[in-house]
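=== RUN LOG ===
request id: a7f3
mode: sequence -> structure
chains: 1
length: 156
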Amino acid sequence: MTERQPDLLRGLAPADIAAVVALGARIALSEGATLFRLGSEASSLYLVERGRVTLTLPMQLAGREQDVLVEERLPGQMLGWSALIPPHRFTLNATAPLATELIALPRQKLLDHFAEHPQVGYTVLTNLAGIIGHRLQVLQAMWLREMQRVIELRCA
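=== RESULT ===
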């Protein structure tokens, strides 16, 4: 795993981090490859080891579908938290703009590990709540900018 402690695993002892990471499988994405699409089943979450993943929201703009950038995930960061949050469907598209390596952590293996190690589960899910909260702030800021633009256009 990266030298930086992964955001999802922050606050865990090195042995606990190693145990969680060992639950996963390393996967490689080539430049431009899609990891997942909005609405697809979320059975794993991912830790970025090397490279970068862009998270985008597909929208109809000017009569055609475009992917609007929501955020990027870098080494040490996680994505795909929908795997742990019902209804277990991804809420964005995830694409690798360059060659990227990730660790895929299957939902059921994580949940089984958390049942056996409740303090690890508590720490990971507390970290996950912070990651979800950050996403909410990003989307709220995007929505507020758009609302401001619409109101300014109406008032002009």
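=== NOTES ===
The domain at 7-155 is CATH 2.60.120.10 (Jelly Rolls).
Helices lie at 14-22, 107-116, 118-155.
=== END ===
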